[in-house]
Amino acid sequence: MEYVYAFIIGGMLSLIGQLLLIKWSFTRLVTIFLLIGVALEATSLYDPMQSLAHAGIEMTLVHVGASCIQAVKTGDFTNIVFFLSFPIAIAWVTAVVCKPRGRMK
After folding, report:
1. Which residues cross the membrane (predicted)?
2. pTM score
């Protein structure tokens, strides 16, 4: 049953993201999902969702926002350093390896 809940909640978050992506930019969508995670953790609604959905919510940007608030509450910023440094490192490697498209002005 845990797989069903993970699939349903993760699928609903993905559906919401895809529907919002039609109207808004990717940057705005990422910001909204992070703020949803912050709001869920601040109102203590994230833990019940996490215990119900497990990986369905832990693999989304909502988890990153909730982790930020958890880090502020506990003072342990090791997860946040990983969450922020890993995408920066991947973007840097991609920028070094790949040839950019378009013109630089």
Report:
1. 6-22, 29-46, 80-98
2. 0.68
